[in-house]
Amino acid sequence: MKYLNTILCISLLSVVVLSCKKDSVPEPIRDVQEQTLTDDEALVNYLQTHFYNYEDFENDPGNYKIEIALDYINVDDDDKTALWDQVQTKTIFITDRENNEIPTKIYYLEAKRGTGENPTVVDSTFVTYKGYLLDGTVFDQRELPMWFNLATGVIRGFREFLPVLRSGDHTVNNDGTFEFDHYGQGVFFIPSILGYYESNLSSIPSYSPLIFSVALHKVNPADHDNDGILSRDEDPDGDGDPFNDDTDEDRNANFLDADDDNDGTPTREEYDRDGDGYPDDDDNDGIPDYLDQDSN
User: Fold this and answer.
1) Which residue among 35, 52, 191, 296 is least enclosed by CB atoms within 10 Å?
2) Quick one: 133 exposed, middle or buried, by C-beta within 10 A (0-12, 13-18, 19+)?
3) CA atoms within 13 A on the CB side of 96
């Protein structure tokens, strides 16, 4: 009997071990197109059943201290306008592992228009923010402003939304602290592919659509490759997206490439030799020297 009990214990232990091994097998990464459709359904449902405190913003338009608050539309709130009737939509194309372009949607609204400038997708931005899951869980927030590099330091959805907002201004208090005012505020809703997708973070489950409310305080144009040309200006095709400009086709976008034409002469040295403030074109072929491999 003792021997039988030992066998039973070993058998049960084996089941537990085998079960753990089975459960530890990583889930295959989900198909982007299917997951995007699933996420979009969840986002649409959220937008149709929730509202934000738009009346606070409407009733006190000069007060930039009002923060965005999201809430469920209860029976007593049937007079509230759902987010679905207020958001705008932007379609973004994602390339999956098979190089297929998958359209995905970001929903957003601007609650307060700032008085400063709009950032580009490659600028640095000084922001406060709060991040939510669709169940209302706050997974991250920043009450004091911090700098975010939109080109390299944020998820895709953040980069796609921030240029909608305008920055504000600030005053310096007697104690050396800053007081921010007249800044833009907005909220955006993104599928998981524009967030963390399959990554299972401590506070964000994998494949989670995300919500961010953001206030934009300052914008700082960046020069990521330190070549003397602002990253926002390294956009030869003029489509507003410096990420797809790679003159020498070395898989480094021009704004991250210190030698844009790969001719051995740094862009900083080729751009404006005569110091007149305009890019040089020594062979007069209509292509600036710093983008022209044949200019030397």
Assistant:
1) 296
2) middle
3) 14
Tell me how far apart the terminal alpha carbons of the chain are, to the nearest angstrom.
91
Q: What DSSP letter does each residue of the chain carry, written as one string? A: -HHHHHHHHHHHHHHHHHHHHHHTSPPPPPPHHHHHHHHHHHHHHHHHHEEE-HHHHHH-TT-TT----EEE--GGGTTSPPGGGT-EEEEEEEE-TT--EEEEEEEEEEEE--SS----TTSEEEEEEEEE-TTS-EEEEEEEEEEEETTTSS-HHHHHHGGGS---EEEE-TTS-EEEES-EEEEEEE-GGGTTTT---SSS-TT--EEEEEEEEEEE---TT-SSS-GGG--TT-SS-GGG--TT-SSS-GGG-SSTT-SSS-HHHHTTTT-SSS---TT-SSS-GGG-TT--
**Number of residues that make up the chain:** 296
pTM for the whole structure: 0.86
Its CATH architecture, for the domain 32-220, is Roll (3.10)
> In the chain, what are the domain boundaries?
32-220, 224-296
Tokens 């659509």 belong to: 209
CB atoms within 10 A of CB 239: 9
